[in-house]
Amino acid sequence: MQKYKEDFKKINIPNAITLIRIILVPIFIFLILSYNFTYRVFGFIIFIIASLSDLVDGYIARKFNQQTELGKFLDPLADKFLVIGALITFIFMSEQIEVWMILSILGRDILITFLRSLAIKRGSSLKTSMFGKIKTAFQMFSIIMILLSFLSITYKQRVLINQSYIKLKQEGFSTYEIAFRYFIDFLNGNYTDVLYILSSFLPYTLMFITTIITIISGLRYLFTNFHLLLPNSKQGG
Question: What pTM was computed for the model?
Answer without folding.
Answer: 0.85
